[in-house]
Amino acid sequence: xxDQPIRxxxxxxxxxxxxxxxxxxxxLAEQFQIVAVLDADSNRRAEAIDRFDCQAYTEYDDLLADxxxxxxxxxxxxxxxxxxxxxxxxxxxxxxxxxPMATSLGEQTAWSRPATPRTRSSPSSNSGATTQILCKxxx
Length: 139
Fold this sequence. Notes:
The chain is an alpha/beta fold. The chain has helices at about 15-25, 40-50, 60-65, 80-90, 105-110, 130-139, and strands at about 5-10, 30-40, 55, 70-75, 95, 120-125.
């Protein structure tokens, strides 16, 4: 175990990204630090920079390439969940994905392929418990 907070990237600052994940992680600053966000809306990015003193991206690949991000929260539109989560796992990130984790059985099956002994993933249950449990396991 380390005493350093787990560094989190949030992909998508809509209802789930802001109102569920960011809201639940923000008061847990000793355990989690939001270091990067992704959103198409420049106002949301600016608010995140101001609120979290973090990096803000418009391209998912740039967020994935950020070495500061250990845990990726995927809160993008549902049809992007599987591809975004799989890409994050392939880049060595731990993943919490907002529900649904996939829109087809094929996408759901693909989830297990990129995971390694060093990466973990979890669909979200819309509660802070999922994020907290996954992160304890990740360390």
